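W.,

You were right to be curious about this one. When I first looked at the sequence I had no strong expectations either way, so I just let the prediction run and decided to look at it fresh. Below is the sequence, 372 residues in total, followed by the output.
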Amino acid sequence: MGLIATISEAVAPPRVLADPARMKSLADELATCGYNIPNCAERLGVFPRLGVNFWPVLRQKWMPDENNPVDTLLELFIDGIEVRIDRLRGHVSSDFIDVVLETGLAAENGANLKSKLCLFPCYGKYIVTDRAAKNTAINQVMWLWAESYILGGVVKRTPRKRAIDLGTGSGVHAILASDHCERVVAVDINPRALEFAPFNAALNGAANVEFVLGDIFDSVDSTFDLLLANPPYLPDQSAEAGDNFWSGGVSGSDILRRIIQDLPTRLDQDGTAYIIALYPNPPGTSTKEQFEIWLDGSPDSYQVLDHTWPVPNFQDMLSEKPFAGDKSAWRFGVISLRPCERGKGWWKVVGGPGIFFRNDGSCTVIADHDSA
């Protein structure tokens, strides 16, 4: 289907080791190898301005160098290519290889290692996900698309007390938030996500993240001063919202709508919500108008930064029965909302294509309401 390969293969989630020091040693060696966004950008070629080019189809021509540790790790953990163990030993310790095997990040195949998972660098963290192929045998944990890096870079990293990451998946946004938040709650309805996300938290030493199996806010009682969400958003005509990491139901907005409707009771007055999604607006309507409906006539109680751009030619490469109608009003990107005194709200359109990434893969934009 489209550019996404489809496979059917049971793949075990990664295993957290009992010794935190061994988990940390894995991340430490990845860092020592220079496995980070800037070095990956340099090796793979210039990052497309709207997406990190870990996905092979988006890359420029790349000729891996066996003597480069970054190339070796990219082949093993991004492209799923078998790598000779002796080649890997030229870059990492024997303990690193032992931990990779014990955690299930890769398996031996004769003299080679092969991984059925992905391991991405992301703003100083390391995030393990399912592979970048549609796998019909499991309820996949989403790999890091460009949107993961956009949301990770756009969030203003001010100190917070309580954060929530809705639809956490791999846990990437909860883990990034753990550095500047006292407490983070990571929620997902997919039990598989609640195996990957704690693994990634342990890998990155994020001890202040609580993982909750649940549907949006249903299993969570408290309010929050930071809300993060990258919800399923594709208008899938054949899957219920939340059945997989992409389906937002027939309209595409089922989960997004519920999140927005709950903001008045779940987001603290001094809090901010950052949501990256497709906004599949009906023809002739705007994202602002949809939010006004979902906020029940009180949009003037929020200051909104709209970092989105039009996507009338959006291509759904995952749904079994993609939406085939008018996409002229569709937009994609980050909407950030901050509560304010009623009547003092505003909606500022500040986004557009081609503004998010520098050539080294770093994000150029921060959604800062104070400077808007």
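Here's what jumped out at me. Residues 120 and 144 are 7 Å apart (CA to CA). And, maybe more interesting for your project: The chain has two domains: 6-134, 143-371.

Coffee later to discuss?

I.
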